[in-house]
Structures are given as C-alpha cells and as structure tokens.
C-alpha cells in the first residue's frame, strides 16, 4: 500500500504569520485574542476575536510576501491566507522547483467552512445601495471556497487533483484525510492539503452570536474568553487563519531526500445524525470517528500520546471528552489532551489543518501545547491531563486530531513519527 | 500629461499592480500590462467612478490601450 507522509508545513494564525512564530507563541502560552479591530464591533454581542495581526505587529502576517497585490485586492482574506500558507508549505518541502512531470502529479485540496463572507456582505450592500453595475467582476471567483485550490494550482502550476472540502469546522481535517487517500489511490504523488477561514466581519460575528455559539461574557477580558473544559466557559471565540501541509507518497519523499515530519496513518469520519449545531449528547459520532481513525492506523488506544481536541470552549467539550474516555480509557491511556483553541480561537474551516500541524510539531519537539484559562476544570475532567496553562515536555510518538462541525460532521486524523 | 491622463495612470497602477512608467498612453492593457478581460471590466468601473462618466459595454470593448481610455473619458466627461 502507498504510504503518505508530511513533508512541508505552512501556517497563518492569530499567533503568527508563519509556522515557527505561531508555534513559539503557542508553546509560550500566549493568546491571540483581543478586541475586534477589523470593523466597529461596538453594537455586537461579541466584540472580541482572534484576528490575524497586521504586518506591523510583532507576530503579524505580511500578505505581500507571497500573494500579488492585484490578487489581494480581488479576493477575500481566506484565499490570501490559504495561498500564503500553501506557499510556505511548498518552500518548506523544498518543492519550489518542480519539473512538469511532478507538477502533473501534484494536486491541491484546501477547503474552507464558509468562504468569502466579508466580500459577500460588502457586495450585497453595494448591490442594494449602488446597483448591479457596481458589483465587482471578481465577486464570485474571489469568494467561493474552491478558489484557494484554484489559485494555488495557477500560482504553482499544479495539475493534479484540484479539490476543496466544505464540511464546516471539520474541513481542515477532512481535507488532509481526503488528500491522503488521493495519494494512496495513486491519483497523485504530492498533495497540498489544508483549510482556511476569515469571517471576522459584522455578518459573521452576528451570525455566530445569534446561534448562541460565541462567547459574549468576556468582552472586557479577551485573553480569558476561550477556556475549554473550564466550568465558566460559555462559547467559542472566533479566530481566522490557515494551515496547509504538503502530503507526499513515502517512496517519492525518500527518493528526493525530503525532510519527513510524520506519517498520516489513520482517518476516521462520521455523522452525528442528531442536530444542526449541537453535538449528540452522548458523543456517539465523535466516538465512531476516533475509533475508525485508530482502526485504520492499526494502532491501539494506548499508542496515542497526544490528542488535539476539537474543544471549542462550549458545552460540547465535555461530550467530546466523555467520548475520548470511552475510546482511550478514563485516563486517556496516559495521553495528554489539550485544546489549542484556547490560544487561537476557533478557525472554523482552518481549525483541523492548523491543529494537525500543531500535532506534528508536538511530535517534532516532544512538547504538547497547553489549554489556556483552565482555572476550574469542569466535572468529568478528573484524571485526565488537559495540559492546563503551560506547555508540557513529554514523549510524543503518535497523535490524534479531532474536528467536528455544524451539521454533525466529524473527522479524526491519526499521525505518527516515522523511523 | 493632462490631468485626465494622470488620474487614469494612477487608477491603472493601483488596479493592475504595475509600475507607473510602464503605463504609457500607448500601452495595451492586455499585451503590455498583463490585464485580462475581467481586469478591464474592473478598470472601466473605476474610470466611471473617478470621472463620473458612463462607459457602455460596446464602448468599453473598443478600449484596448491607456490612450483609448483617456481619450474616451476626455470626450465624454461632463
């Protein structure tokens, strides 16, 4: 069977415009949350978010590095983030100079949960106020979800499968899982895979707040607002950004002497069949997804050292934890489990990819990132290492990432270090 | 350079992300400045906005150089 490994990483997060800055800040226990600066949010129920910082910030993102200014003007930020993260991953993998045959065997699978909501909002107002003749000719292709994959393909000449997953907050994990399958099935030798999102705009904040999903009680203490597993958690903090990995067939990577971060060994998927926003109270879907990923990986629950939880800082956290306990045991078989959403907020379609990259870096550096603000652990958390407050050095050889989305869609990825 | 030509040049530089010295009156949007058909639609909208003129589709189709745009605007602006 063709094996699939990770040979390149790219990140744009509220903690940094690249992989190493984001990771360093995450391990240092920094928070990406703050008052919304993108627009005047004073009339919103939630006035805070985890924004990607501008280039003047100590850990800001400079879009000019890899994305033409003309494209920046035509497309929504989620495409800019995705394009940049893909570029980072290509550079990291040493694939900037691909020959034509390689390009024809290299594909892209970068999705988003929502897509270009800020641009849709803007042009909708524009249409109503100024008429159809003022709508941008770039409106459609600058907002739709598969246009990260399209833009990456055009920018780097990649002619393999061009795919884009849309499964809400599971998008990033499904994108990587689906792309790994494409390599396994011999559709491609290399896939750029991941997810991106940027919906910190009035309609996005209002929509999630009206769905009662957002934290609205910590507007005066943004850094404390995302608090997974804490008794006083009360909703997620919206984040934005992108994560993209280079997936590569193992022999192909070995033959060119590529640096290999990890092997993607297991992929589980399931549906809750329960409710549009709330998870099944017994977490059956989450459990099925984790079990499938382990089974496909051929690993025992005890083999997993670190779980990056979906852990959004909502009531769903303890449902996920209960499901994990049924799969891994009451002490999670000695695994550490943390939610990095405590630091970067919820990146929606970007979450699963960004968090998978954090899992990979945990294996690289043998350290697991913390769950911030876990001051008063909720019932059901006893006996589990949720890595409160500070990062923890420990052996990490195999990891599992969970991502669950609206509609009751679940995905789990298992990755392990390679000898 | 006339006032109109200068303002046209500025819009073209901003929208196409090209160097100002490349935006001569003879420059073709597609052949010299790397624009595609959608870029031209967007440029025409920007000209309409900037100069308060209306450039109908059949007129826009005939605009292929910077000079064509400048000339059309000078002839039609109020």
TrEMBL record, chain A:
Record's function text: Involved in the type II fatty acid elongation cycle. Catalyzes the elongation of a wide range of acyl-ACP by the addition of two carbons from malonyl-ACP to an acyl acceptor. Can efficiently catalyze the conversion of palmitoleoyl-ACP (cis-hexadec-9-enoyl-ACP) to cis-vaccenoyl-ACP (cis-octadec-11-enoyl-ACP), an essential step in the thermal regulation of fatty acid composition.
Record-given protein name: 3-oxoacyl-[acyl-carrier-protein] synthase 2
Catalytic activity: a fatty acyl-[ACP] + malonyl-[ACP] + H(+) = a 3-oxoacyl-[ACP] + holo-[ACP] + CO2; (9Z)-hexadecenoyl-[ACP] + malonyl-[ACP] + H(+) = 3-oxo-(11Z)-octadecenoyl-[ACP] + holo-[ACP] + CO2
Domain of life: Bacteria
NCBIfam families, per database record: fabF, PRK06333.1, PRK07314.1
Pfam families: ketoacyl-synt (PF00109), Ketoacyl-synt_C (PF02801)
GO molecular function, one term: 3-oxoacyl-[acyl-carrier-protein] synthase activity
Enzyme kind, highest EC tier: transferase
TrEMBL record, chain B:
Pathway in which the depicted protein is active: Glycolipid biosynthesis; KDO(2)-lipid A biosynthesis; Lipid metabolism; fatty acid biosynthesis
Gene3D superfamilies: ACP-like
Presence of keyword NADP: no
UniProt modified residues of type O-(pantetheine 4'-phosphoryl)serine: 37
Residues covered by the Carrier domain: 2-77
Alphabetized Pfam families for the sequence: PP-binding
InterPro entries on file: ACP (IPR003231), ACP-like_sf (IPR036736), PKS_PP-bd (IPR020806), PP-bd_ACP (IPR009081), Ppantetheine_attach_site (IPR006162)
Post-translational modification (record): 4'-phosphopantetheine is transferred from CoA to a specific serine of apo-ACP by acpS.
Keywords, comma-separated and alphabetical: Cytoplasm, Fatty acid biosynthesis, Fatty acid metabolism, Lipid biosynthesis, Lipid metabolism, Phosphopantetheine, Phosphoprotein
Entry's localization field: Cytoplasm
Highest rank taxon of the organism: Bacteria
Major localization listed first in the record, in broad terms: cytoplasm
Family stated for the protein in its record: Belongs to the acyl carrier protein (ACP) family.
Record's function text: Carrier of the growing fatty acid chain in fatty acid biosynthesis.
This protein's name: Acyl carrier protein
Lineage per the UniProt record: Bacteria, Pseudomonadati, Pseudomonadota, Alphaproteobacteria, Sphingomonadales
């Amino acid at each position: 069977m063709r094996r699939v490994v990770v040979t390149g990483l790219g990140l744009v997060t509220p903690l940094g415009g690249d992989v190493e800055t984001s990771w360093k800040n995450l391990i240092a226990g920094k928070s990406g949350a703050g008052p919304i600066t993108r627009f005047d949010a004073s009339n919103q129920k939630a006035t805070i978010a985890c924004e990607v910082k501008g280039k003047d910030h100590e850990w800001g993102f400079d879009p000019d590095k890899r994305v033409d200014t003309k494209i920046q003007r035509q497309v929504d930020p989620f495409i800019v983030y995705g394009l940049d993260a893909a570029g980072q991953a290509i550079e990291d993998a040493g694939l900037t100079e691909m020959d034509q045959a390689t390009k024809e065997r290299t594909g892209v699978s970068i999705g988003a949960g929502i897509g270009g909501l800020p641009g849709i909002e803007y042009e909708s107002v524009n249409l109503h106020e100024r008429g159809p003749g003022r709508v941008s000719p770039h409106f459609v292709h600058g907002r739709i979800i598969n246009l990260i994959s399209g833009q990456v393909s055009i920018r780097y000449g990649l002619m393999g499968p061009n795919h884009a997953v849309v499964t809400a907050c599971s998008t990033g994990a499904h994108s990587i899982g689906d792309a790994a399958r494409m390599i396994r099935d011999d559709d491609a030798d290399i896939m750029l895979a991941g997810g991106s999102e940027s919906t910190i705009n009035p309609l996005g904040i209002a929509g999630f707040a009206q769905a009662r999903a957002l934290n609205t009680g910590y507007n005066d203490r943004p850094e404390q607002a995302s608090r997974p597993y804490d008794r006083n958690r009360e909703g997620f903090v919206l984040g934005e950004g992108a994560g993209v990995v280079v997936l590569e067939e193992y022999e192909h990577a070995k033959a060119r002497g590529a640096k290999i971060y990890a092997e993607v060994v297991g992929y589980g998927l399931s549906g809750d069949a329960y409710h549009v926003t709330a998870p099944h109270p017994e977490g059956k879907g989450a459990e099925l997804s984790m079990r499938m990923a382990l089974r496909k990986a051929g690993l025992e629950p005890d083999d997993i050292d670190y779980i990056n939880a979906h852990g959004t800082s909502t009531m769903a956290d303890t449902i996920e934890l209960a499901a994990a306990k049924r799969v891994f045991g009451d002490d999670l078989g000695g695994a550490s489990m943390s939610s990095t959403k405590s630091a970067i907020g919820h990146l929606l379609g970007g979450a699963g990819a960004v968090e998978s990259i954090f899992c990979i870096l945990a294996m690289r550096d043998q350290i697991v990132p913390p769950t911030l603000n876990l001051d008063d652990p909720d019932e059901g958390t006893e006996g589990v290492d949720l890595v409160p407050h500070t990062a923890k050095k420990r052996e990490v050889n195999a990891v599992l990432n969970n991502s669950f989305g609206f509609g009751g869609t679940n995905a789990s990825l298992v990755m392990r270090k390679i000898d | 350079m006339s006032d109109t030509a200068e303002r046209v040049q500025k819009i073209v530089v901003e929208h196409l992300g090209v160097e100002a010295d490349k935006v001569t009156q003879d420059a073709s949007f597609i052949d010299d400045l790397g624009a595609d058909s959608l870029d031209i639609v967007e440029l025409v909208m920007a000209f309409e906005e900037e100069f308060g003129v209306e450039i109908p589709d059949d007129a826009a189709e005939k605009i292929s150089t910077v000079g064509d745009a400048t000339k059309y605007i000078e002839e039609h602006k109020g």
